[in-house]
Amino acid sequence: MKNLFSSQFISLETLPSTPLKPLMASSLTHALCQDPPPPHLDDLLCSKPQQHQTEDDNDTSLPDTSSSFCLGSPSRYLSGESRVERAWSHWTKLGRPKLIVAPMVDNSELPFRMLCRKYGADAAYTPMLHSRIFTENEKYRNQEFTTCQEDRPLFVQFCANNPDTFLDAARRVEPYCDYVDINLGCPQRIARRGNYGAFLMDNLPLVKSLVEKLACNLHVPVSCKIRVFPKLEDTINYAKMLEEAGCSLLAVHGRTRDEKDGKKFRADWKAIKAVKSAVRIPVLANGNIRHMDDVQNCLEETGADGVLSAESLLENPALFAGFRTAEWVIGDEKRNRDGNLDQADLLVEYLKLCEKYPVPWRMIRAHVHKMLGDWFRIHPHVREDLNAQSRLTFEFLYNIVDQLRELGGRIPLYLKDVEVDTLAAEVTANGLANNFCNTW
Ligand SMILES: Cc1cc2nc3c(=O)[nH]c(=O)nc-3n(C[C@H](O)[C@H](O)[C@H](O)COP(=O)(O)O)c2cc1C
């Protein structure tokens, strides 16, 4: 048997799975609705996975997953005190990641994670995966969850409302990740209909049983990503309950379930600070992270152990390396310089990663719009040309970048002077060092 684990690209085709009737899960949204639409070209993988041949290809042994099992046996028999200790020892073993790519459906997929890692991200979440579909549908598994050896630390996120199904899904990914995460924050209508995400805030006993099930039976720790309640006291009790149930890492998005629009509502860092003070496990802050000054302020104000960023990373995957879009330089032009990098450069790097680690075209299309959005506003006919394509190719996308460059109006990413100096020191022969925590 060919050992795919020793190659750089891992898809769950290699994992034991229950044979199933194939269901065309053409996008997560559609998959969640259980109402598969006709197959769309954008849902096809951009290319066949490249198998990177190595000398070990004939070695049929399983990969060394020891690092992901550092918590040892499930925490079934541990006291609260020992669980907290183990939570910290695991977090420390991972290098206490501070700068983390948030989970994003259709957007925090492998090539995007790898791009962000190159530019300073210490860890990353997968997009939310639907636990039931994940257990039932091989095609969904293979398409929606891919990873590689360099894709660590990795947090695999699921939505779930059934403890047994959640455990089944989690067991399939535990050798490839450092946390299995439960999405307790999705506020969308689809989550209401499916009874998951932030709507589980109405059924805390179920949340408790989901976390307990995994904490007691899984070898990797369980993490949770929550939203805050309107009342601080409720948020604190919620966080304490999760810790008690066996959660080892808590990410707190400082907006309530009703505060859906991140641009309209500022995340409440005070609530995150209160949670951090109330629990003893590592806590991550989420919301309002648009550049590295925000990171510094957020860590100082909340006392959190790390931050997640979502929307801003989509536009600027080099955010954690200190690069900022023009929007965050206005009024402070003197202290910022052209960082010799722009969003088109980042898109080209992303596309190359997609050639190496194939993903559905719909994900690539979404990233093209985000990364080139500012350029498209100046040259809308290029966007129209893109939208007119029912089937994308890499050639077409590289051409778009060339076309925009020829049309002119380059929009640089900027670095603060202090960050330029640090960057110069950190650049290695391999490109950017994965260590930009010191740039602020
Ligand atoms: C495109 C997109 C997809 C998202 N998908 C998920 C998801 O799968 N799971 C999740 O917990 N949150 C998801 N979120 C929410 C983000 O993880 C994050 O909590 C939210 O955007 C606030 O962070 P920000 O202010 O840095 O954008 C998504 C956000 C965006 C923009």
Structural overview:
The protein is an alpha/beta fold. The protein folds into two domains: 250 residues, Aldolase class I (TIM Barrel, Alpha-Beta Barrel), CATH 3.20.20; 99 residues, no CATH class. The chain has 17 helices and 13 strands. Helix 6 links the parallel strand 6 and strand 7. Helix 6 packs parallel to helix 8, helix 8 packs parallel to helix 9 and helix 14 packs antiparallel against helix 15. It starts with 8 loop residues before the first strand and ends in a 14-residue tail after the last helix. Flavin mononucleotide binds next to helix 12. It comes from Hevea brasiliensis. This is tRNA-dihydrouridine(16/17) synthase [NAD(P)(+)]. Its cofactor is FMN.
Summarize the structure.
This protein has about 450 residues and is an alpha/beta fold. It contains 17 helices and 13 strands.
Note the main attributes of this structure:
single chain; 440 residues; alpha/beta; TIM Barrel; 2 domains; eight-stranded parallel barrel; 17 helices; disordered N terminus; disordered C terminus; binds flavin mononucleotide; NAD; tRNA_hU_synthase_CS; DUS-like_FMN-bd
